[in-house]
Amino acid sequence: MAKRPATDGAPRPLAPTVTAAYRDAVDVADSYRAVRTAVRLDRGILRVGNRFVPLDRYREIAFVALGNASASLALGLWETLGERLTQGIVAGATPTPSNVPFRSWVVPPGYPGGEVGISVAASVEELSRGLGPRDLLILLLSPGGLSALSTPPAGVTGPEWQRLLAGMAHAGAGGGELTGFVRCFGGGVAGGRLGRVATAGEIETLLLDRGDGPANVAGGPTIPLLPAEAASARALLQRHASLPEMVPRVAELRRPPPPEEPLQRAGMHRPVVLLGPADALRGASDAFADRRWVCRLGGMTIPGPPEAAAERLLARAEELLAELRWTPHGGADPAGAAPRSEARVGAAIFAGVTLGLPEGIEETEATDRFLRSAQRGLTRRGSAVILLPTAGATVPGRGPPGGYVEAEGPPGTIVRSLPMRAGLTDVGPVAIAAYRAEG
Prior knowledge:
Blueprint: H1 15-28, H2 31-38, E1 39-42, E2 45-48, E3 51-54, E4 60-66, H3 70-81, E5 85-92, E6 103-106, H4 115-129, E7 135-141, E8 150-151, H5 158-170, H6 175-185, E9 187-188, H7 194-197, E10 202-208, H8 227-239, H9 247-253, E11 272-275, H10 277-290, E12 293-302, H11 306-324, E13 326-327, E14 331-332, E15 346-353, H12 364-377, E16 383-388, E17 403-406, E18 430-436
Helix pairs in contact: 1-10, 2-3, 6-8, 11-12
């Protein structure tokens, strides 16, 4: 019988498994491959999302690719349709590949109202208005695209608008609330307004979702503002009326669309979600399972601010460990849900998180808050909490906003994971509570 390597009861290092999980999460949620699957051309029949139509139905095919994965989305569409694409706009956090021959911008992370974002929004509106009844507009949207579609309300400067949104966020407004507020009161073509200004015969929207729903991706340019959403935005404005003096002007200058406006127009089809948190969770969990960890889903998406999300992840992990009858020395109890041989490395609980941030805001600070809060909640020996970003690096020199903390580590110490190239995807961070067996 082969002699088992001595471990002195020390748990195996996490770093190799974390690295593999990070790469697998991004690989499974690769937006380039998702576009190549969703858009196909075969013997004159064009597939776009869930629809199959004859290619000669369209005089022109134009596209707009926005957000953190815009470069990958645009490349996938170009390599599928090539010169059949007659017009295109690409804008996101990373440069567009040089072989994609269309207008492109790098939009810095931040709230809507920046100069570059305002220029992009004007270009998108100009392109949309210039299409004809026999033209197709393909929207490729990923998180981070809001700043490229939304502009300040009339009479409000970009810096004023950004200060207002930042003030609301610092006062406790959540990411979904702020996106709804921008959809309601902002200018540009977010909040369903692109569907009203575009003159294309058909509009197809393909998007990446972080778990907050299509309306929260790039501000939902083809999703009309609902009365309940408008009421929520007005209530948020009222709660923060003591912020900058410009707030009353926003209320007067930008009213929500009247409820009697049609919710859809002919030729504007329901958005198709290409990728979501489930894809990244599947990739990360497969990496752990391949290394003989017991894997369980703690939640598809845990919303809320970093501290609350960390607390909910650990609470859910304790529930699942109780179901497994987890014991630190032997893994799962033989009478539990998993045999001892399956659990001899550890148990891992997976969940997607949103960190409660408005779309397009850099995540490093929120990630640090999540991990430090999680470390304070780690009570089991050999436990750790991991956060894997799927958006890649957004801050030069700092690497990706992700890493892990361990119960035995010095308080507040964050071990960062390996950098992953930005622009591939963004379906939100993957959070993992890991519990290693000790022998």
